[in-house]
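Deliverable D5.2: sample structural annotation.
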Amino acid sequence: MPTTPAADERLADSAFLRACRGEEVPHTPVWFMRQAGRSLPEYRKVREGTAMLEACARPDLVTEITLQPVRRHGVDAAIYFSDIVVPLKAVGIDLDIVPGVGPVVAEPFRTRADLERLRPLESGDVSYVTEAVRLLTAELGGTPLIGFAGAPFTLASYLVEGGPSRNHEHTKALMYGDPQLWSDLLDRLADITGAFLRVQIEAGASAVQLFDSWVGALSPTDYRTRVRPASEKVFAAVAGHGVPRIHFGVGTGELLGQLGDAGADVVGVDWRVPLDEAARRTGHTKPLQGNLDPAVLFAPREAVEEQAAAVLDAARDVPAHIFNLGHGVLPTTDPDALTRLVEFVHTRTAR
């Protein structure tokens, strides 16, 4: 079901999209990375007995799970429920998401021959994504839906390491030891990622976020010369669609300026860098998203509000601010703490 002109107008005027464009807002918009997921009892109930990748391929489940935090918390945007390895699975990579571990690749990528296993992603490979986004936009009305994908470096790290890694030793060995293969791998992943984001946008997503979860493991020089061109290619692939593009990585304080320069309209900031300093590092030119430490939510309500107020104060002079955590919601977070935090931010920033 396509959105109506009235719904399109409400979307364009939503606090979240206005902030993404650097415009005045009625209140600071709020959403949380991993807001749809393990912290919610209703999520655990609906996911019971269903593997993660199976859930990601069921439009009915994706729709319900994506909507749950919007209903419960009153956040200003929904984020599409999926996983960054979904497009890799869709093009035929043998992988699974192992509970308590994360994505595990059956045959890690180490040689040029492995590159041939990464074919281009076509829209028909993820038709369930198109269906789910259309279902969601019909339900969400004037609430924006954020699509997302994993950035080439983070996807490459999963493929090369075979799963999550602390030191990324195999990834860096390939990056330094065979620069041409590394460049070709990231280029191919950029094509897959760009195609995956286009599917979501063309189905109705109002914004997209590129997650580069592991890129904080790199030096600024290595990021600029060996990784950033692939991220630039992803952002360029969706530049003509007119939706805001958000770029977020963990431990990326030294890379914040480059994350923006890669093509993002909004830069996500983790909790390690205050937003006023993040604004300085991005040249005071980009709206910023963030950045309350997720662990703060385990403190008493007064302490949570004190820390949230500090984030808001640090954002006072940034071009525009979207309130978020500095990383994803932790699984054992009290959902009521998130609901109270949304209300606090909305109330404290009401114009």
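Annotation notes: Residues 179-203 form the longest helix (25 residues). The beta strands are 78-79, 95-98, 102-105, 145-150, 207-212, 245-249, 266-268, 288-292, 321-325.
The annotation will be released with the project's public dataset once the embargo ends.
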